[in-house]
Specification:
The protein is built from 9 helices and 11 strands. The protein has about 260 residues and is α/β, with parallel strands linked by helices. It has one domain: Rossmann fold. The N and C termini lie far apart (about 35 Å). The mean pLDDT is about 95. The structure holds NADP nicotinamide-adenine-dinucleotide phosphate (NAP). NADP nicotinamide-adenine-dinucleotide phosphate binds next to helix 1, helix 4 and helix 6.
């Protein structure tokens, strides 16, 4: 029975991935901080026949997260881990991101992701089997002036993930980096700005699962926005600035 761990499973893309993989014979481990939202997703997944365990944890808690992962993997070795939990950062009025917001965003989106990724890398490489998805963003290629810490954390995940992928392949572990464009989720919903080619979380989950099944290095979508974002650092700053002007946004914090 495949064992699949998803962080940030209480909402948005993580919840959609949980529903996508929920089927008889699948053992899901869903984690986030909010108990009610997490249990609602777990109940839906049990309803379609999956075995589901939930665990409330803040991904910033490095020690407890590592201890929990080692104990979990000792009981039921993890086949697929989707490192997905994140927050937006930004500024409610589109101004300069505060220090506090920037540190919180970096701590969750980069520090928190590594707190999950690195113990899992050790466990999977030790047994020579497993698959990891790191959820980054198209902002990793085209840094958004309204979300500097978010863009920076996502770029770091992209680079870290692709570097690790090359090392892990001969050890029997597959790693993909996911770089979505705009997806309709609670995180996306608080952004006031242009969101071209936005897709549903269920569609994003289908694309991520398809990419993972084909062991893609980067799972980037939608393709047109991905192609433009990937070219962003190749053009002069003046051109990039004009293009990114259309993507300015204000972020009303959700919680
Ligand atoms: N939506 C988009 O347009 C978009 C575009 C590109 C990339 N992405 C990426 O896709 C991923 C999912 O985003 P989403 O849109 O689905 O956002 P979302 O609906 O806000 O979900 C974020 C998830 O992360 C969890 N989370 C946040 N902080 C956490 C913490 N400190 N510890 C543990 N869990 C935490 C949240 O649960 P709790 O609050 O219950 O802890 C929630 O389950 C993120 O990595 C995001 O950067 C999203």
């Amino acid at each position: 029975m495949p064992v699949i761990l998803i962080t940030g499973a209480s909402s948005g893309i993580g919840a959609a991935l949980a529903r996508f993989y929920a089927a008889p014979g699948t053992d899901l481990v869903l984690t986030a901080r909010d108990a009610d939202r997490l249990e609602a997703v777990a109940a839906a997944c049990r309803g379609t026949g999956a075995g589901v365990r939930t665990h409330r944890v803040d991904v910033r808690a490095r020690g407890p997260v590592g201890d929990w992962l080692r104990s979990l993997d000792g009981e039921t070795p993890l086949d697929l881990v989707i490192v997905n939990a994140a927050v937006n950062g930004g500024h409610p009025e589109g101004g300069l991101e505060t220090e506090a917001t920037a540190f919180e965003t970096a701590d969750i989106n980069l520090g928190g992701a590594l707190n999950v990724l690195l113990p899992v890398v050790t466990l999977m490489s030790g047994r020579g089997r497993g698959q990891i998805a790191l959820v980054s963003s198209l902002a990793a290629y085209a840094p958004l002036p309204d979300a500097p810490a978010y863009s920076g954390a996502k770029a770091a995940l992209l680079a870290h993930g692709l570097a690790l992928r090359a090392k892990l392949k001969p050890l029997g572990v597959r790693l993909s980096v996911v770089t979505p464009g705009y997806v309709k989720t609670p995180m996306g919903g608080v952004i006031k700005g242009w969101r071209p080619l936005e897709m549903s979380a269920d569609e994003a989950a289908r694309r991520i699962a398809r990419g993972l099944a084909h062991d893609r290095d980067v799972i980037a979508f939608p393709w047109l926005l991905a192609a433009l974002a990937r070219g962003a650092l190749l053009v002069p700053e003046s051109v990039r600035g004009l293009a990114l002007y259309g993507f300015r946004f204000r972020n009303r914090p959700r919680r």
